[in-house]
Amino acid sequence: SITFVKLSFILFLCRRFSESSDKGWFRSLFVHKVDARKDAHSNLLSKKETSNLYKIQFHDVKPECLEAYNSLEAEVQKRLHEDQDYPCEVVGSWNTWYGEQDQAVHLWRYRGGYPALTDCLQKLRANKEYLEFRKERAKMLLSRRNELLLEFSFWNEPLPRQGPNLYEMRTYYLKPGTMIEWGNRWARAIKHRQENNEAVGGFFTQIGQLYVVHHLWAYESLQAREETRNSAWRKEGWDVNVYYTVPLLQSMESRIMIPTKSSPLQ
């Protein structure tokens, strides 16, 4: 039919245009990083060269206990971080400044994946000193929540950095079934957010609330954050990636966080 011929001609022009425009945004529509039909997104989007598993903790602390909580948590974190018998390490610890108030956020890395996590938990259950710490900490908390995460293959691995910095954790709650498309889009978009070394790490949940993404950024100040984010909009292609990722969202939130004194990310 005439309609079918027109459609075929349009698709032909699209393919030719994408082949002749290496830097154009239109070409990006035809580039697929991974195929959702071939494997679970946990295998397709995570780093292959490492077997890192991450745990993020959200602790809502009684306001009058926050200082004591930070001191106690730092002491125990230091011991676990430095003890080679425990296959875990602290990536970063923060208190929220804007967002949920009186909240502590901790990010842990388990080099060795789920076996390392299991080994660590078994040892902690037999550690009387740690069990006493948990009892004391529980008196200071209103609520707590854990999530297990994998890191996106196209993000930097979060490594210790000098400060002072403010950190922003942008959390995206995706529509179920959209993680592959999100990863494909951000694999292109992340190149627009590297100039000021602001990209710290990108993660997606495996256990906890599913289809949740956490992006972690570092800035010298709120003004530096504003300028860095605005500069991304002046780069060709950033607007297109934003346009195509917004429909994948159910909701999103932003936390501005201040690192604790003991945090490797300062």
From TrEMBL:
- Primary localization: mitochondrion
Q: Which InterPro entries match?
A: Dimeric_a/b-barrel, NIPSNAP, NipSnap_domain
Q: Give the record's keywords alphabetically.
A: Autophagy, Mitochondrion, Signal, Transit peptide
UniProt GO cellular component terms: mitochondrial matrix
- What is an example of a Pfam family matching this protein? NIPSNAP
What residue stretch is flagged as signal peptide?
1-20
NIPSNAP domain residues are: 167-264
The highest taxon in the source lineage is Eukaryota
- Keyword Transit peptide among record annotations: yes
Which terms under GO biological process does the entry name?
mitophagy
Q: Where in the cell is it found?
A: Mitochondrion matrix
Q: What family does the database annotate?
A: Belongs to the NipSnap family.
Biological role stated in the UniProt entry:
Protein involved in mitophagy. Accumulates on the mitochondria surface in response to mitochondrial depolarization and acts as a 'eat me' signal by recruiting proteins involved in selective autophagy.
Instruction: Report what the protein is called.
Output: NIPSNAP domain-containing protein
Q: Which organism is it from?
A: Astatotilapia calliptera (Eastern happy)
